[in-house]
Amino acid sequence: MWTYSLILLISWLPVFLASFYRKFNYKTIYRPLFIAITVTAFCFVIWDIIFTAQGVWGFSSEYLIGSKIVNLPLEEVLFFLVIPYCCFFTYYLLRKSKLINEARAQFFKIILLLFLFPTFFTAIFATHSYTATVCGINILLFSFAIWKQTPRFKVLLVSYFFNLIPFTIVNHFLTTGISTISKNPIVWYNSSQFSGLRFFNIPFEDFLYMWAMLMLVHLILEWQIMRKKLRI
């Protein structure tokens, strides 16, 4: 079946078409963005391969076209290219608009919360591999971003909250499935390897997973922009 592929296509197509609208001009950052997304996708695919092999999560074949890269469905690999591309459209528009005040003092409490929450979560669910890993990666990336005083970090944070709406819709279908096709979800999770907390049937860790993925893309993208002195 083409279900997983169709979900990705529906997510990608509106953003791709909007990128050619002259007022948005999203395609002007395609080169550094694609580099950032490709590097991030490589890291997350390796993580995905390991956890799939360990049975932390897996995929229901009735929703897939059948092609695989190592032990991952082709659709899962494409996920790491499509979703950051879509999410960073929001980031690009917010960054370009310059509506977000970059004064860090104004969101210090949020920064502190984003650091302390994964730390606290890890302490409670340290024996759950998905929870411990995603929280640890969040702490490392977040600490590095703050230490390096990465530009436009507040823009990333605001865009993340905007992207939670489409991300929740997409991930709900992935973790719930399509009842007319199968009772199984497209992506299933081993209940012993995550906290068990869900929102619209989405493991809570998935929201931290998304945040980690966007942080890494952001760090690589902004490093390229600074290094090459690109004007956006």
Per the principal axes of the C-alpha atoms, what is the gross shape? globular
Topology order in helix (H) and strand (E) letters? HHEEEHHHHEEEH
Count structural domains.
Answer: 1
Please tally the β strands and state the result: 6
Rg from Cα: 18 Å
Helix fraction by DSSP (H/I, runs of at least 4): 55-70%
Topology:
Layout: H1 3-18, H2 30-53, E1 57-59, E2 68-69, E3 72-73, H3 74-97, H4 108-124, H5 129-147, H6 153-176, E4 187-189, E5 198-199, E6 202-203, H7 204-228
Antiparallel strand pairs: 1-4, 2-3, 5-6
Helix pairs in contact: 1-3, 1-6, 2-3, 2-7, 3-6, 4-5, 5-7, 6-7
Task: Please explain how this structure is put together.
By secondary structure, this protein is mostly helical. It has one domain. Helix content is 64%, strand content 6%. The protein is built from seven helices and six strands; from the N terminus they run ααβββααααβββα. It has helices spanning 3-18, 30-53, 74-97, 108-124, 129-147, 153-176, 204-228, and strands at residues 57-59, 68-69, 72-73, 187-189, 198-199, 202-203. The strands form three sheets. The protein has a two-stranded antiparallel ribbon with strand order 1-4. A hairpin with a 2-residue loop joins strand 5 (198-199) and strand 6 (202-203). Helix 3 (74-97) packs antiparallel against helix 6 (153-176). The longest helix is centred in the last third of the chain and has 25 residues, at 204-228. The chain is globular and about 50 Å long. The mean pLDDT is 85.
